[in-house]
Amino acid sequence: MGENVNMNLPMVDNILAQGDSLRAVVAHQYGAGRQALEHAAQLLRSSKQIVLSGMGASHNVCIPLSNLLAEQGILAPVIETAELLYFQRQMLSPDSTLVLVSRSGESVEATKVLNVARERGANVIGVVNTPTSTIASQATQAIYIESPPDHMAAIQTYGGSIAVLLLLGAAVAYGLDSGIRSDLERTADAISRWSSEWLRFSGSWPGFFAGNTPMYVLSRGASLTSAFTGALLLQEVVKIPAIGMSAAQFRHGPVEVVDEQFHAIVFGTQPKTAELDRTLAERLEDMGAHVRSIGPDWSASKVVSLCAWPEDIPERCVPLIDVVPMQIAAYETARWRGLTIGELKFATPVTLSERDFAVQQQTAQA
Asked: CATH number, domain at 299?
């Protein structure tokens, strides 16, 4: 869910402001926030076990950090906070550090697992966008994202969370002065330019998302966060069924659902697997499916690209930009359908109950 909600700015403004908000987040982390980052990195380096956790979009943003650390031989699994709370709490010990992401700092599972971690003697690095929150005040070390708030759906705070976690990973693996700042700033510039370009040419996109046929969103590597979050945006904003999934996992059985009604977005943004992803998209087209692609080098493919793609995006920063077309697609499709963007039927902006949805919570308060 989107947290730190700002009802005054529409979703499209949040999308177009991402370049500026990312630059502001990076500037803070190299200014007033640097000491917190460095201390958090020290905690991770001294830990025998690292666990990354969040719910919803805050879960997804942990994936690029997990991949970055894995490239350095550091195991840091991403575990959904509710699963950690009820089934995997043995992962939390005096030798472990939990990186707990909750932009509001108040999500119900996150505050509960914080208490469990403290009881079990684990260090907790809280990544939050609300300095006065429960997690900010009770974590071993809080890292403030310092992102502008969003209009319901997590847009600026989502990118800000990824950037902060990439900076944390860089601080652990090779230092904050290793060039990652310039990579993030270059990516912010590309987002500022291309988000407006994509919005300008997105008028034809809603037709592809018409109907209530489930939309599969397929990717690999660090860009799994974009597939999962893209599907989440279609669910939250457009109210259509959507499934975010590993492109490789899709081949192991789920491909059996393909027919002439099947719709999919295939990301080819990870260089290591781009050729495999292009091949998958083409095979799906051959099977009669409706497919759109996101990423570079699709010009020779028969698969239609959802949008043009910028050159020279630093590989570790790709998840910051390849989600943007999905954000725009969700916004435009909701607008095309006449939906009130940001209006929630059952969920709440910050999930504070493990049992009730918005209707029950409102009834209980009446």
From this structure: 3.40.50.10490
Same domain membership, residue 175 and residue 136 = yes
Q: What's the alpha-carbon Rg for the chain, to the nearest Å?
A: 20
Per the domain annotation, does 5 fall within a domain?
no
pTM above 0.85, yes or no: yes
Residues 115 and 217 in one domain: no
The whole domain housing 239 covers 202-336
Question: Can you read off the two tokens belonging to residue 198?
Answer: 């994509």
Other C-beta atoms closer than 10 Å to the C-beta of 339 total: 13
Strands, DSSP E only, in the chain?
Answer: 49-54, 78-80, 96-101, 123-128, 141-144, 215-219, 242-246, 263-267, 290-294, 304-305
What are the tens digits of pLDDT across the range 129-185? Answer: 999 999 999 999 999 999 999 877 899 999 999 999 999 999 999 999 999 999 999
CA angle 7, 10, 16 (to 5 degrees): 130
